[in-house]
Design goal:
Layout: E1 4-6, E2 45-51, E3 56-63, H1 65-72, H2 81-85, E4 91-95, H3 107-119, E5 126-130, H4 144-159, E6 169-174, H5 176-187, E7 194-198, H6 202-209, H7 222-232, E8 239-244, H8 251-264, E9 267-272, H9 282-293
């Protein structure tokens, strides 16, 4: 699968006017809870932690790469399990689809990542499936989903062997989670160097950018946040991978957002899924994502 690689000299750009077809939100059938019931998922453990900013316990699913390796095999270099278990690992945070942010919503994609890593014997990484809050990072209570994620990053770094710098953390979001991943990348470049937005509705994000300035979503959207990030000329460079299906309703807005990022000089790639693939083909999404994450970075 080939990528469209786009990086341009930094310029100023205004958010253009578009008329996009809006895609339907991903249906969510379950009543929201800050901590899921903790079903048994192979390769993942369910935990919860106390988030002081939200004054509550929040659940997450976690794949511990070191535990997996130390209990299943020695490394190719012949290191003993205790040596493998002490390695620091990068962390991939997964933001699931849906208008509610249950940590279970990202599990299907998380499992696909784990399958690909095992099958192709790729470098190990910790994988976290995140709870995005009552409305999956679009919250009426001033960003409780975002506060929960930021607190979770601190918790993961304090409890597990992680690479505790921005180069060791990546975000991937699917559908609504993909929209959130792009926003978080531009809002918190001090924490995340890379993000992946799969099947994200940048049309909805664009619609929010055109709301009255009194509406909080006027500023908290992928278009405005990318513009502000570029305007600030932050020394913390970020990269965004957009994955979408050329025949899906979200594709025209993905192309337009890619063009907008090019004008801003923000490093990004636009990666189309194969035409014969389903738009929600998690296997293809995980393969494209891992190819990109594991590439040598300049």
């Amino acid at each position: 699968m080939s990528f469209c690689l786009i990086a341009a000299a930094k310029t100023t750009a205004q958010i253009p006017d578009y008329q996009f077809q809006l895609s339907s939100p991903t249906p969510t059938n379950n009543k929201f809870s800050w901590t899921h019931s903790g079903q048994v998922i192979e390769g993942f453990n369910h935990y919860n932690f106390y988030c002081p900013e939200n004054k509550r316990r929040i659940g997450f699913y976690f794949h511990n790469a070191n535990t997996e390796l130390s209990t299943t095999r020695q490394s190719s270099s012949g290191q003993a399990p205790s040596q493998i278990n002490n390695r620091t690992r990068p962390v991939l945070y997964i933001l699931g689809p849906g208008t509610q942010g249950s940590e279970a919503s990202g599990l299907a994609l998380a499992q696909k990542f784990l399958e690909q890593i095992k099958h192709y014997k790729l470098p190990a990484m910790h994988i976290v499936s995140v709870n995005g809050g009552p409305s999956n990072f679009y919250t009426k209570d001033i960003g409780s989903g975002e506060k929960g994620l930021l607190s979770l990053v601190q918790h993961i770094d304090s409890q597990f062997k992680t690479i505790r710098q921005r180069s060791g953390r990546s975000l991937i979001g699917l559908n609504e989670g993909g929209q959130a991943a792009s926003r978080l990348l531009f809002t918190h470049p001090e924490l995340f160097a890379r993000a992946i937005s799969a099947n994200a509705s940048f049309a909805q994000e664009h619609q929010h950018s055109k709301l009255p300035v009194t509406n909080p979503l006027n500023k908290n959207n992928s278009w405005q946040l990318a513009f502000l990030y570029a305007k600030q000329q932050s020394p913390l460079r970020v990269e965004l991978l957009q994955i979408g299906h050329p025949q899906h309703s979200t594709w025209p807005a993905n192309e337009a957002y890619s063009s907008f990022l090019e004008q801003l000089g923000i490093q990004h790639r636009l990666a189309p899924l194969k035409l014969e693939a389903e738009p929600q083909n998690l296997e293809d999404i995980s393969i494209l994502s891992l190819e990109w994450l594991l590439q040598e970075k300049p």
